[in-house]
Specification:
The chain has strands spanning 5-12, 15-22, 27-32, 35-41, 48-56, 59-70, 73-80, 83-84, 88-89. The chain is mostly beta strands and 91 residues long.
């Protein structure tokens, strides 16, 4: 984990999905297509689950972010409809 936090990106059906952890503000955010879909304030290190929905007209896709604490590191995963996405660390 970086000093200021981490950022992971993934793509699902043309939608950009990002997981942003800020150690400065102590916030974990799920960002879908540039808009914050879910966030959690994490003053102390802990495991977090964030949920959101991607609405494509007729179909809805459930997005679940799991950030599991394995002290002193986190294991992060993004799932869409139960399938894990490949994450790319960008910062």
């Amino acid at each position: 984990m970086g000093l200021m936090g981490d950022r992971y990106e993934a793509v699902f059906n043309g939608h950009e999905i990002e997981l942003v952890r800020s150690e400065w503000t102590k916030v974990l955010k799920l960002v879908i297509d540039g808009s914050v879909a879910a966030r959690a304030f994490c003053l102390l290190p802990r495991s977090v689950v964030l949920r959101a929905v991607i609405d494509e007209g007729r179909t809805r896709h459930e997005v679940v972010v799991r950030s599991v604490l394995r002290f002193p590191f986190y294991r992060d995963a993004i799932e869409v409809d139960g399938r894990a996405l490949e994450l790319t660390r960008t910062r």
